[in-house]
Design brief:
Layout: E1 4-14, E2 23-34, E3 39-43, H1 50-58, E4 65-70, E5 73-74, H2 82-87, E6 88-91, H3 105-115, H4 121-134, H5 151-164, E7 169-173, H6 181-197, E8 201-206, H7 209-215, E9 218-223, E10 226-231, H8 243-254, H9 283-286, E11 292-295, E12 298-300
Length: 306
């Protein structure tokens, strides 16, 4: 049994209210699995469906089609048991929006301990202090209100809150993108240390390949809700082959996406990336490329580079 398993998962949203039949496919036919103890990185630009995928894995939204299993059971249930909810926690991009501004650091971390009943009343305070110390926040600052902390400090507190639930999986949704570069490095180092200390599995969602490369063991690249490339070994990232993956890698190297390519084609059928691909050919419109293994542990959905 896989720790996490997705089989042909799609997510479709109704757009325009009840008087409109327009549908938006945020995720389309995604399949992959994840082993316990791994850090799986999912990368893609805004609108690629990676955050939607994260919410479904958390059990916050049901898939429209397909099967999504966490530890062998459906990830989403209308009446989810507290134990299932406890086992997967999320660290959000914006720590200020993810916390109650009226709360102190102590209250933020205390909340899951009380909700899940993980400690006796007399043991809650020392546990909160311990968790804050684990993420680099002195216990002496536990009484300070949320708004009194910097962005990096508050993200540490949010990580402590997630750890308080004693989860097995952390979904990290752009955990460093709202922070200064120097603070990003500190948070990434912290996450790396905590993964080993608490025997955690990570699903790391980001648009930043450098962040993924530092923390992840494996890589999935998404474009418009579709997986276009998958690498079982993150050290092979410089060998990506899909045109979109190559473009992302070049952006990470040079911080410049370059001139936008437009082929002015209809991509409702065929390859999802055809309208932006420098290697476009008519075959790309006739058939949708399947995710095929080109080397051991390396799968690409592209006609041009296979």
């Amino acid at each position: 049994m896989e720790f996490l398993e997705l089989n042909d998962v799609s997510k479709i949203y109704e757009a325009g209210g009840k008087f409109s039949s327009k549908k938006i496919k945020a995720v389309s036919g995604v399949s992959f699995s994840m082993k316990k103890g791994e850090c799986l990185g999912i990368v893609g630009q805004s609108g690629s469906g990676k955050s939607t995928l994260g919410r479904m894995i958390m059990g916050l939204e049901p898939p429209s089609t397909g099967q999504l299993l966490f530890q062998g059971e459906p990830a989403y249930k209308k009446k989810m048991k507290p134990e299932r909810r406890r086992k997967s926690q999320m660290v959000y991009q914006n720590s200020y929006e993810a916390t109650n501004p009226k709360f102190s650091a102590y209250q933020v971390v205390e909340e899951p301990l009380r909700y899940f009943g993980l400690r006796e009343k007399k043991d809650i305070k020392p546990r909160v202090y311990e968790l804050l110390e684990n993420v680099g926040i002195p216990a002496s600052e536990a009484g300070k209100k949320v708004m009194g902390f910097s962005g990096g400090q508050l993200q540490r507190i949010c990580i402590a809150r997630a750890l308080a639930a004693e989860p097995e999986l952390l979904v990290l949704d752009e955990p460093t993108s709202s922070l200064d570069v120097s603070v990003q490095a500190q948070i990434l180092n912290l996450l790396k240390d905590l993964k080993e200390a608490f025997d955690l599995s990570y699903l790391l969602v980001s648009h930043n390949l450098e962040v993924i490369y530092y923390l992840a063991d494996r890589l999935i690249i998404m474009y418009k809700g579709v997986v276009v490339e998958e690498l079982d070994d993150i050290t092979k990232m410089p060998e990506v082959m899909h045109p979109y993956s190559v473009r992302l890698l070049n952006a990470a190297r040079y911080m410049d996406m370059g001139k936008r390519i437009k082929n002015n084609v209809n991509t409702e059928q065929g390859c999802i990336y055809a309208d932006n691909c420098p290697h476009f050919n008519p075959h790309c419109l006739e058939e949708t490329p399947a995710l095929k293994e080109v080397q051991p542990g390396h799968r690409v959905a592209c006609f041009c580079n296979i």
